[in-house]
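Before the break, one more example. Copy the sequence into your notebook; we will annotate it together after we see the structure.
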Amino acid sequence: MSSDTLAKIPTVPDTPEPADAPRIVPQRRYGQWAAAVVVLALLGFAVNSVLRNKAFQWDVVGDYFTSDSVLRGLWLTLWLTAVVMVLGFALGTLLAAFRLSANPVLRAVSWGYVWLFRSIPILVQLLLWFNIGALYPRVFGVRTVDLLSPVAVAVIGLTLHEAAYAAEVVRGGILSVDRGQIEAAQALGLSRWRRWRRIVLPQAMRAIVPPAGNMLIGTLKGTSIVSVIAVNDLLFSAQLIYHRTYQVIPLLMVATLWYAVVTTLLGIAQTFVEKHYARGTENAR
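Here is what the structure looks like once it is written out:
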């Protein structure tokens, strides 16, 4: 197009804004600011009450926070959490595979296991395992009370309970993978193992990691229930001390602070793991 032709094309003149055009004013959110002030005031009052209340005996908390008995109980709590999570997810993965199997017997066994162990409260399960000697006094020629120590009972009870929930987490993660990608991998001739390792598992982990992280934190806190069967975990260690010194509140605060520290660290680690598996997606931040 020539310059003469371009010169003949009429142009639309800029429309000046009228002098009395209304000015856009951002919405004033007085209610939200007032609510924020009230919440901060209540939070400050609560924090001040906790810090200045002499009944908490913060000096005693400081004395026992890193004591040997408390640290030994913390170590047992961490060890128990790790063992239960590993064994629980190993058994849960097997149960999830059974549930997704074409074999109706395996599906029924998996469904029945998940139904049973999700129906019974964990405290009841631990007490049943702790008193299993009343049902089976001897196993393989050995007295049951000698075969199953309180720690072994805690591992068995918590693992069987954890596996029921892990099975559903793993099954949900596998079902979240688009079936078309699996079929495309089959069309390319990838072996079953390579399909699971390169296609299914990386995508399933995006759906598995968040609830698995929550289960890990829940398991850490849930291990405190083993104190009822005299397992020397963090809470039981604190109880042994305050039964001797009668300083109940400060020792409970010691246990509370340690649980808060560990769960915070686990939450931070969970965030990084989630970001790792969310790479390349819209949710990655």
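The mean pLDDT is 85. The beta strands are 138-139, 142-143. Try to locate both features in your own notes.
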